[in-house]
Write a structure and sequence with these properties.
By secondary structure, this protein is α/β, with parallel strands linked by helices. Helices cover 33% and strands 13% of the residues. It has 13 helices and nine strands. The protein has helices spanning 18-24, 101-111, 123-126, 136-147, 167-170, 176-190, 219-223, 234-246, 263-279, 298-311, 341-361, 382-390, 410-419, and strands at 82-86, 114-117, 151-159, 195-202, 251-256, 284-287, 290-292, 314-323, 367-372. An eight-stranded parallel barrel has the order 1-2-3-4-5-6-8-9, surrounded by six helices. α9 links the parallel β5 (251-256) and β6. α9 runs parallel beside α10 (298-311). The two termini are 39 Å apart. The structure holds ligand G3I. Ligand G3I is lined by residues 90-92, 118-119, 164, 202, 257, 288, 319, 381.
Length: 428
């Protein structure tokens, strides 16, 4: 199994304590050390700067941002993977094809030790037709990671949304176990040891986990329901067994959302974990953690992590973002947040506390890592989410570690402080 002590870290240029970096944040004009293979550009150029003009529809590129200047490399502060989800190929904000792709790559190489493809390693991207696999875009991403000493967490071998389920599966009349096994094994087998782990199944639990049997009635569920009443759906077992048989040396995760505070989702998550553990096919649980400033509570995280730790499995925060307000489900726009130092300080505190509770609760050997879901605020999926949920002509909830101009936010400092064992504060 992959474990954190096996993780290949890149050479450290200079060990810089958080205390040192904090002093560097006081407006110092000193530049951070050069980062191989290229020196960082925009992420290293600003010190704590002026407040943003917080217009509801202003384009991010025309705003000023609150930024900190650090000389750290985030991944060097941790003995476990520090990851980021990225766009690639021809996606918007692609780290390869976007006009600022080179700057994005510099920031990624500077701060992260693991990549997740935000989209391009999902089912239909890799396996569009029954007899066709397309690995070119994924290979470009994995090769970029490899050549920069990073690893890749695969996302996701089995996930239900219509748009990304391969079309042929919708009408599949053949042997589902054989087909799903071939799908999983062909993908797992394609990649070398740069891909150290996979979300084997994503979001198998119903959006209403306390209704009916609590399972999402997806294409996969309907094709392979629980073989025994009260058991988990058969397709989950088939997918994990296939992945395990294909490569016993990679870590296999079950991944879901809102499975920290929502007792129904947490219980179903644990049910899946225990059933797969009995078959020896799971290594860890992925907590997506698309959270916001006031929900869930830190004690919710602690409780959920602890229960997985008690099972002896790994805990991975797979998709962390922290919106500054509730970006979900409100028909009435909430009071619109104002991008200012108070807001950014509070978000820094929250990022620090999330990292801290992870460190405090999960023993070193069970830390699968922490991945943020996107690089810069303006590329986050939450931009659309917030607009769609509220109807507001307003689209920014600033959930990530970097501003739209790729400068470092106070939130990044919050993560670094927790990793260094510093107390969490709003100060920056
Ligand atoms: O690439 C096309 C682009 O060419 C086209 O112009 C544009 C027009 O809509 O669409 C682009 O594709 C979009 C893609 O993101 C890349 O940006 C898809 O429409 C859009 O549906 C897709 O959304 C992704 C979403 O999953 C659905 O798969 C988000 O980026 C991605 O962040 C989000 O990630 C999910 C995790 O996989 C699972 N957990 C929840 C998380 C957030 O929803």
């Amino acid at each position: 199994m992959f474990n954190s002590s096996d993780f290949s870290f890149r050479p450290i240029l200079a060990a810089v304590s958080v205390a040192a970096l904090l002093s560097a944040c006081g407006g110092s004009s000193s530049s951070p050390p050069p980062i191989p293979p290229k020196s960082s550009s925009s992420a290293s150029s600003s010190s704590v700067s002026s407040e943003a003009s917080s217009s509801s529809s202003s384009s991010s590129s025309s705003s000023e941002f609150i930024a900190v200047e650090t000389d750290i490399r985030l991944f060097e502060q941790a003995e476990f993977p520090i990851g980021v989800a990225v766009s690639a190929a021809n996606e918007p904000f692609s780290i390869f094809n976007n006009t600022d792709g080179s700057d994005r790559r510099d920031v990624i190489v500077r701060h992260f030790s693991e990549l997740t493809a935000g989209n391009i390693m999902k089912m239909s991207y890799l396996h569009p037709q029954e007899d066709t696999y397309t690995f070119g875009d994924a290979d470009e991403l994995v090769n970029f990671a490899k050549s920069n000493g990073m690893k890749v967490h695969g996302h996701a071998l089995v996930w239900h949304p219509n748009y990304q389920v391969p079309g042929f599966m919708n009408n599949y009349q053949g042997d589902w176990v054989a087909m799903l096994t071939e799908h999983v094994q062909t993908i797992v087998n394609h990649f070398d040891d740069t891909v150290v782990s996979w979300d084997v199944v994503n979001e198998a639990i119903s959006d209403s986990p306390n209704q009916g049997d609590g399972w999402r009635q997806s294409l996969f569920y309907n094709a392979l329901p629980p073989a025994v009443e009260g058991d988990i759906p058969e397709y989950i077992k088939v997918a994990f067994q296939a992945a395990r048989d294909a490569n016993p040396d990679i870590d296999l995760y079950y991944n879901d959302y809102d499975n920290t505070a929502n007792p129904g989702r947490l219980n179903k998550t644990l049910e899946i974990a225990e059933a797969l553990q009995a078959e020896g096919t799971i290594d860890g649980v992925g907590f997506q953690m698309h959270i916001y400033q006031t929900y869930p509570s830190i004690s919710n995280f602690e409780n959920a992590f602890q229960q997985v730790v008690d099972l002896g499995l790994k805990v991975k925060i797979t998709e962390l973002d922290i919106a500054v307000v509730n970006p979900y489900g409100s028909a009435t726009p909430p009071a619109l947040p104002e991008y200012n130092e108070t807001l950014m300080g509070n978000q820094k505190l929250r990022y620090c506390q999330v990292t801290e509770v992870y460190l405090d609760t999960v023993p070193e050997a069970q830390r699968g890592g922490i991945t943020v879901w996107g690089l810069a605020d303006n590329e986050s999926w939450l931009m659309n989410q917030f607009r769609n949920a509220t109807g507001a002509d307003y689209d920014d909830v600033w959930p990530l570690l970097f501003n739209a101009d790729l400068t470092e936010k106070p939130a990044l400092l919050g993560v670094a402080e927790a990793l260094a064992g510093e107390p969490c504060t709003t100060d920056f």
